[in-house]
Amino acid sequence: MGADLTRILDVRLYQAFDLDADGRVLAGSDDTGSTQLIEIDPDGTTVPLTALPGACTGRYLPGQRAVIVSHDDGGNELHQLSVLRLPAPSGRPAGLADLEPLVRDPRYMHVLADVQADQICYFTNRRNGVAFDPVIRQLADGSERALVLADAMFDDAAISPDGRWLALTVASPVTAASEHVVLVDLTVPAGQERMTEVTPADAPARNESLAWAPDSSACYFSSNNDREFLAIARYDLQDGRLTWVLTDDAADLTGWLAPDGSTLLVERNDDGASTVTLHDARTGARLQGLPLPAAGCVTDARLPAPRWSRDSSAVVMSVSGAELPGDVLLAAGVSAAPAEVHQLTNSARALGRPAAGPEQHRVPAPGGHRVPCLVYRAAADGDAALAGSAVVVVHGGPEGQAKQNFNTYVQVLAAAGHTVLVPNVRGSTGYGKSWYSADDKSRRLDSVADLAALHAYLPELGVDQHRAALWGGSYGGYMVLAGLAFQPDLWAAGVDIVGIASFVTFLQHTSAYRRAYREREYGTLAEDREFLLSVSPLERVADIRAPLFLIHGANDPRVPLSEARQIHAALTGRGRECHLLVYADEGHGLAKRANRLDAVPKAVEFLARHLAVHA
Prior knowledge:
The protein is α+β, with helices and mostly antiparallel strands. Among the domains are: 13-67 and 84-103, no CATH class; 361-611, Rossmann fold (3-Layer(aba) Sandwich), CATH 3.40.50.1820. The protein is built from 10 helices and 36 strands. The strands form 8 sheets. Strands 29-30-32-31-33-34-35-36 form an 8-stranded mixed beta sheet, sandwiched between helices. Helix 1 runs antiparallel to helix 2.
């Protein structure tokens, strides 16, 4: 692989985690090969904070020069919580021994949900390995109050400023991509807590981004309850009334309330690109727009949520786009018009070449649908032998969205000389509730049918249908295997990263908490076993003729390594070409640069062998 492609893989990415009272930004940087914490001072000075064995995230402790660090072991997602005092006692980036244990038990997960000056809230599955109970921990003495509310997964939490209420989002036990909002009164005796519904428990809806008015009179959140798209809602405790503050009938809106309750930072999701504006929190009136340095998005599965300063004068965001691989933005003076938006990092500096930008397409599909698809054209200086070839890159989830962000794989493939299609097939978020529900359970293969529609569309892009491959990770990896198994005449090759080969064995061997969560989407082992087998590529392995390249992490707690091993064994046992790369220090994906630098060139070379035109 050429030097330009290696440079794309070697690009440095930055993320914004928090903002303190003195204007310092807590950020993540993968300069060292995995995401570590750094601090960006108001004068622009960058100070490395951690040097842990694996990736980590963090939040400032209000009123202290300290950070709560969330870290795991080799991508196993068993997150532990520790405290880093600043400046680091050793005078160098902190290793694990330099952190003060806060909440640690390597058998279980501890997911930081809310941070206040005197207490934190986190979720943990230590009660039974499946349910995620909210725990409120007092920082002064380490005492904890575990709330056993239901055998459920809680996704978001916010403690009211007066300390009386805990707002939570609770995952639906039966409906995929659905959760409801509840309140818990913390003034009742421990063990007697109950959940009060804010949104209906049985309504299919997404609810997220919980925040409280400063007087604890109202809770704000983003919701599509009884709506097609996410909108900004306010729940007033006094009369129990839910009010829509800001709506849009054509796009998702996500909002983050300033601590003083005056202003909402709002992101509009337009085909995976973000428009960012400030609005009056009571009326929803638009105050001003916040320009991004280049087209891209500020929310994504890989990006942390924006964070307001405690005095509501500034907000810090992560941004990713074709021209901005991953950077930190600070919007200062937001009470003025216009606010000043500063780009604190420069990830494009190391890119070394113009990035491929997305074209927006709508691809005709069965049932009169049109699949949203971003197309990245092959680089003019790509391998001439690959001209006219295509790679379809399918996102994970399935309740995710391919956004207009920087995707390393997409950029490498386009630079190599492929036309790259990045679709949002049925099941994708960002296009309304009906679209992300269109692949649930018995409709699983409807999303696979979208792959055939994309293949049929290739001539419209000037692409040779006989030289088209599939690439995907996680659920996208399942889509790769499904395309090769259920549409064997269409695809010339496939690259599957941590994908599902059989829904039955996946559900049998995934982590217990994941099984409870994913059966809502795919069906249950107890009731839907035959159907799960019918949509599993492993059951159709004899039909797979295209060569396959598999990449997997040994510590993957979501899609176990056994999924890759069994499809590899089944194909090689039939004499089919199938390669398997396993990384001992990875979990669900390739989080470490060294492993990406090893795996991706091999996968790109594999595709070149099977998609190139040979003289």
